[in-house]
Design goal:
single chain, about 375 residues, mainly alpha, Arc Repressor Mutant, subunit A, two-stranded antiparallel sheet, 15 helices, about 5% strand, globular
């Protein structure tokens, strides 16, 4: 890190670590935020879009039909930011036929761990507030049995880490977070800020919470994924989201360079407004895109339900395809709790209306895909 680049004492202070390199210790939150007319307007638009999405979540007849594919899509995109290659189709296929996907097994496991971590975080919010304890539990689940397992899952780091190009050192890194002896005090301050209520707008607090977590970088690995999980969990805890339907990873991936630049600009120049602006634009865009996708999925469901109204088993299987659009006859029999011939008939009926297509070309071991559903789930939001 170049000490000359860090020109704002309000954002934090540089300390000389024992190894002779510089590290950054962020100032406790909240900072003084300039609520310009532009920022107030952005906050209003983001609040309105988020409220529309939350309202939709409260009135969905079967919210789990949307939540499950949304969670998996987020897991894929958030993990992709960290370098995994697994796509949504591969993740869904691996759930139906484990081991079939020709991909690094660690890639698939990392994405599946993200799904489990988010599911666990949502469950734990019923009995735990957002806290350092919950953060450690998220990290333990995220790193269980994968490449990051060497990075002490569920434990805050006891050694220095840094952010920079491959091969960089603490002396040459783009950013060096607080040394371990400064980190625990920074985390304690962060947790206190996390528990503040009614002092600043929820979305601004969420933006600041995420940025400060990334600045502290309390784990040896997995900080970005945990930080993105915390956005959704914060909004659920504050009752700003009725269902886990908002995820910013698609927006961050589409605007990744600006994301890193905005975070670094806080540390070097104290540019909080630029980061909050980026975050609010992301919330607005992602909320509106999520509402649109939810509408597409629900419309798709109603269209095919109308075509299958006289076929009870096919209707039941249709809903299962929104949870995972890949299916075999054996899986259909298990899901429907029925015989193999009855399941095969339901699959055939879904083929007849154009929902399912067979993908293997084989007479045995056939795999079917609901392409209309997968297309709707995979559709990408418009980047800025």
């Amino acid at each position: 890190m170049n000490p000359g680049s860090f020109k704002s004492s309000q954002a934090g202070r540089l300390v000389k670590a024992a190894g002779g390199y510089w590290a950054f210790v962020p100032t406790p939150l909240p900072p003084q935020v300039d609520y310009s007319s532009e920022l107030v307007l952005l906050l209003s638009k983001a609040d309105a879009a988020l409220s529309e999405l939350s309202g939709l979540g409260r009135h969905l007849p079967n919210p789990h039909l949307l939540i499950t594919p949304y969670v998996r899509r987020e897991a894929v995109l958030s993990s992709r930011i960290e370098g995994t290659k697994t796509n949504l189709s591969e993740l869904l296929l691996d759930e139906v036929q484990p081991g079939v996907v020709e991909r690094d097994p660690d890639d698939v496991r990392e994405v599946r761990n993200y799904v489990r971590a988010l599911d666990r975080g949502i469950r734990d919010l019923c009995k735990l507030p957002l806290s350092l304890r919950l953060v450690r539990q998220l990290h333990a689940q995220l790193m269980k049995g994968v490449r990051g397992e060497r990075a002490t899952p569920g434990e805050f780091r006891r050694s220095q880490n840094w952010v920079g190009p491959r091969g960089s050192t603490p002396s040459t890194a783009t950013y060096v977070p607080p040394p371990p002896d400064e980190m625990m005090k920074a985390l304690s301050d962060w947790e206190c800020f996390l528990h503040q209520r009614g002092q600043i707008p929820d979305l601004v607090q969420c933006a600041l919470m995420h940025e400060q977590f990334e600045a502290i970088h309390p784990f040896l690995d997995g900080n970005g994924r945990v930080g993105r999980l915390l956005i959704t969990l914060f909004l659920i805890e504050r009752r700003r989201l009725s269902q886990p339907l908002l995820y910013l990873s698609a927006y961050i991936e589409a605007n990744r360079q600006e994301y890193y630049e905005r975070l670094q600009a806080i540390r070097t120049r104290g540019d909080w407004s630029g980061w909050i602006r980026y975050f609010l634009l992301g919330v607005e865009e992602t909320s509106r895109e999520a509402v649109q996708r939810a509408g597409q999925l629900m419309t798709l469901r109603e269209q095919y339900r109308a075509r299958l109204q006289n076929h009870a088993k096919a209707l039941a299987l249709l809903d299962q395809l929104f949870l995972n659009p890949y299916v075999t006859v054996a899986r259909a029999a298990k899901l429907l709790k029925t015989s193999n011939p009855t399941a095969r008939k339901a699959v055939s009926q879904l083929q007849n209306v154009g929902m399912l297509v067979e993908t293997t070309g084989r007479e045995w071991g056939q795999l079917f895909l609901a392409r209309p559903i997968l297309r709707a789930i995979e559709s990408s939001p418009h980047s800025k």
